[in-house]
Specification:
With 99 residues, the chain is an all-alpha fold. The chain has helices spanning 3-14, 18-25, 29-36, 44-54, 58-65, 74-95.
Length: 99
């Protein structure tokens, strides 16, 4: 799962600098930097703060970060791949500034 990458993409789509997002969430700029560079995994509380500041539901951030390699069962991998492909456009349209 690449949650840091997804957080960074959402931050950039909103036009926030790292310091602006850190300030909006009350976390330190260095901690946000570590999250975005995948050196730290955020707690659920931090994810909720980030999702609120980015105006994107937490489950959408997790959905966008989900990778096939995170799933063990081959049938589930295929299911996730198909669902993700079908849902990606909808998710992007609903929660992207570019849409």
């Amino acid at each position: 799962m690449h949650i840091g990458k997804i957080i960074k993409e959402a931050r950039l789509e909103k036009g926030y600098s790292q310091s602006e997002l850190a300030q909006k969430t009350g976390i330190s700029n260095s901690y946000l930097s570590q999250i975005e560079s995948e050196k730290q995994d955020p707690s659920l509380e931090t994810m909720e703060q980030l999702s609120a500041a980015l105006d994107v539901p937490t489950y959408i951030l997790f959905f966008k970060a989900m990778q096939e390699e995170n799933i063990q069962n081959p049938d589930n991998k295929r299911f996730v791949r198909e669902i993700k492909r079908a849902m990606q456009g909808i998710v992007d349209e609903l929660y992207s500034e570019k849409a």
